[in-house]
Write a structure and sequence with these properties.
166 residues, two-stranded antiparallel ribbon, 6 helices, 17% strand
Length: 166
Amino acid sequence: DNKIIKSFNSSLKKKLISEGLLSAKLKSEISKILKVKYITLCPNGTMALYLALSSLKLKKNDEVIIPDRAWISAAHVIMKMNLRCKIAEVEKDRPIIDLSKLKKIITKKTKVIIAVHMGGRACDMKKLKSIAKKNNIKVIEDAAQAFGSKQYGKYLGTQSDIGCFS
């Protein structure tokens, strides 16, 4: 505990709040746990979604599909980036994107699907990735509520083009 407090205080004094030794250690540990090569720390999930969408070099009015059960930040980021937000229905008994209904709202302008793993529950990621691949669409996982949850033996947030945690 003393070691953690000293390290934290050192980071504060050096004004390295989000990029000091503690952050590097956290990135390393998360990378090991999730078995992923690249990690970027953000101050919140909204910023993570913003960075994820920004990295895809989308154009004005490109469509991004999100489920109708998600935190407002996904829709807010999409609208602030001048993208078109399309809402997909969720399954009747689970708050996750309904893949059978998703297919019906995909258009040529659809560039991204954000799968939100509510409470650690996920849609069938293999099927979602297959749909996305057929339509040349990127998949972002909003795994804010799913850190440590798995599907097919892999962590949620690691089964798509980009995973975001909070």
